[in-house]
Recover the amino acids of this structure.
């Protein structure tokens, strides 16, 4: 059964620091972390060692803020 995770973190891109909060469906916390590394690295051309995760937590369906994730859950 898929769970919903909220991941908060930041990444260093040149001389500036960019923060992010992302919600996604994954089977485990480890899979959610892998998807974050993959998506942020691909989108912003940042290596994994420059992506820092501050918090990863499982959330309830009522707490979802992202409309795309909410539509997937139903």
């Amino acid at each position: 059964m898929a769970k919903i995770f909220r991941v908060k973190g930041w990444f260093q891109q040149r001389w500036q620091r960019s923060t992010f909060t992302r919600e996604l469906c994954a089977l485990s916390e480890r899979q959610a972390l892998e998807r974050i590394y993959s998506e942020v690295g691909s989108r912003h051309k940042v290596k994994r060692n420059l992506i820092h995760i501050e918090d990863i937590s499982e959330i309830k369906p009522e707490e979802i803020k992202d409309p795309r994730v909410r539509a997937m859950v139903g």
Remarks:
- Helices lie at 29-44, 67-73.
- The two ends are 14 Å apart (CA to CA).
- The beta strands are 3-13, 16-26, 51-59.
